[in-house]
Recover the amino acids of this structure.
C-alpha cells in the first residue's frame, strides 16, 4: 500500500512539473531567443559571486533577465544591451571588463606580486649561497687556528 501511495505521489509531482509553463520568455523568432540566451550567459549577476544571470535566481538577476528580454523584444542589438547593463550596473556585469585606468590594476597587481615573489626567492637564494660560503670560510679559519694551536704546543 505504501509503495502504491508513493508511486501515485511521484506521478502527481511529475505530471505537475510537466504541466508547468515551458518557457517563461516566449520569442517570435529563433534569432531573438538565441540572442537572449547568449546575453543571459554573457552577463554576470551583480549579487552572485561568479554566476551568470541565466543560472541565477537572485532578485537582481531576474530583473536583469526581464530587462534583457524587454530590450531583445524591442530589437536592440547585443552591444546595446551590454552597454545598457554596464551603464546601469558597472563593468562587473561583464566577464571581460575593458582595460582602462581603473581595471588595469586587475591585470598589473598579479604581475607585480609575481615579480615581488621572484625577487624575494632570488634574494633568499643569494643569502643562502653567501651563508654557505661564509660557513666555508669560517670552517677554514677554524682549521687554521687549530693548526696554529697545535704548533704552539
Amino acid at each position: 500500500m505504501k509503495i502504491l501511495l508513493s508511486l501515485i505521489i511521484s506521478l502527481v509531482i511529475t505530471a505537475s512539473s510537466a504541466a508547468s509553463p515551458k518557457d517563461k520568455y516566449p520569442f517570435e523568432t529563433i534569432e531573438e531567443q538565441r540572442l537572449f540566451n547568449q546575453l543571459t550567459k554573457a552577463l554576470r549577476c551583480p549579487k552572485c559571486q561568479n554566476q551568470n544571470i541565466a543560472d541565477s535566481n537572485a532578485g537582481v538577476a531576474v530583473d536583469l533577465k526581464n530587462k534583457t528580454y524587454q530590450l531583445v523584444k524591442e530589437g536592440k542589438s547585443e552591444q546595446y544591451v551590454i552597454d545598457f547593463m554596464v551603464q546601469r550596473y558597472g563593468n562587473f556585469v561583464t566577464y571581460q571588463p575593458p582595460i582602462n585606468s581603473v581595471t588595469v590594476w586587475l591585470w598589473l597587481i598579479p604581475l607585480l606580486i609575481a615579480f615581488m615573489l621572484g625577487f624575494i626567492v632570488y634574494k633568499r637564494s643569494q643569502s643562502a649561497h653567501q651563508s654557505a660560503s661564509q660557513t666555508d670560510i669560517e670552517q677554514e679559519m677554524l682549521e687554521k687556528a687549530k693548526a696554529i694551536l697545535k704548533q704552539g704546543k
Summary: Residues 24-98 form a domain with the Helicase, Ruva Protein; domain 3 fold (CATH 1.10.8.640). Residues 1 and 7 are 10 Å apart (CA to CA). The radius of gyration is 34 Å. The chain has two domains: 24-98, 100-153.
